[in-house]
Design brief:
Layout (H helix, E strand, L loop, with lengths): L18 H11 L5 E7 L17 H16 L6 E5 L2 H11 L6 E5 L21 H18 L11 E7 L1 H11 L17 E6 L5 E8 L12
Parallel strand pairs: 1-4, 2-3, 2-4
Antiparallel strand pairs: 1-5, 5-6
Helix pairs in contact: 2-3
InterPro entries: His_Pase_superF_clade-1, His_PPase_superfam, Mito_Ser/Thr_phosphatase
Protein name: Serine/threonine-protein phosphatase PGAM5, mitochondrial
Subcellular location: Mitochondrion outer membrane
């Protein structure tokens, strides 16, 4: 619902100017800027934690977040904001990354929390959540996609660079949806901890994937995907 034609009332057309006025109004609704979306998977965390608050980053996970933060800072981009999942491991990863990006505001959201986005096809034997989880988590994760992954607003004049720190399932689903691939294939993708996935959304709404799960900036002995 961000196509220029969807943003104007076609019934309101001046009798004299006709198509000229329509063209002018369409131009006013067209996006001008490109959005760069950097999706960061949280770093390695304590799998033995029973509650979310206990699933804190491991020492290696903290190292990974430092490496990711340095990598993002080295790109020399003017980041607009960091939006992160409210889960502990994503919040801690964000805090470490943000030290390398001083002045960039941080926003926490429940929409980006980990979950089961949609039943995978083909199915896997090692991961079978309750069916109700797909309905609960799926609606939320789809809402996150619709809320965050879209072309720039027509009022945005300059290209933007945004960081989203969240989880593997969420990122994989968003990538499939953004590229218009069957979302049921999300589990065929694999993402390392602390990895960077870069989506580009052009003013016409087209999306390109620049990188998927990049950890080439990490030494081999620091790479995990648990």
């Amino acid at each position: 619902r961000r196509e220029p034609l969807a943003l104007i009332n076609l019934k309101k057309k001046h009798e004299d100017t006709g198509e000229e006025e329509l063209s002018s109004r369409l131009d006013h609704c067209k996006a001008k800027a490109t959005r760069h979306i950097f999706l960061i998977r949280h770093s390695q965390y304590n799998l033995d934690g029973r509650a979310d608050k206990d699933r804190t980053l491991t020492p290696l996970g903290r190292e990974q977040a430092e490496l990711t933060g340095r990598r993002l800072a080295s790109l020399g981009l003017k980041f607009d904001q960091i939006i992160h999942s409210s889960m502990t491991r994503a919040t801690e990863t964000t805090e470490i990354i943000s030290k390398h990006l001083p002045g960039v505001k941080k926003i926490s959201t429940d929409l980006l929390r980990e979950g089961a986005p949609i039943e995978p096809d083909p199915p896997v034997s090692h991961w079978k959540p309750e069916a109700v989880q797909y309905y609960e988590d799926g609606a939320r994760i789809e809402a996150a996609f619709r809320n965050f992954i879209h072309r720039a607003d027509a009022k945005q004049e300059e290209d933007s660079y945004e960081i989203f720190v969240c989880h593997a399932n969420v990122i994989r689903y968003i990538v499939c949806r953004a590229l218009q691939f069957p979302p049921e294939g999300w589990l065929r993708l694999s993402l390392n901890n602390g990895s960077i996935t870069h989506l580009v959304i052009r003013p016409n709404g087209r999306v390109a994937l620049r990188t998927l799960g990049d950890t080439g900036f990490m030494p081999p002995d620091k790479i995990t995907r648990t």
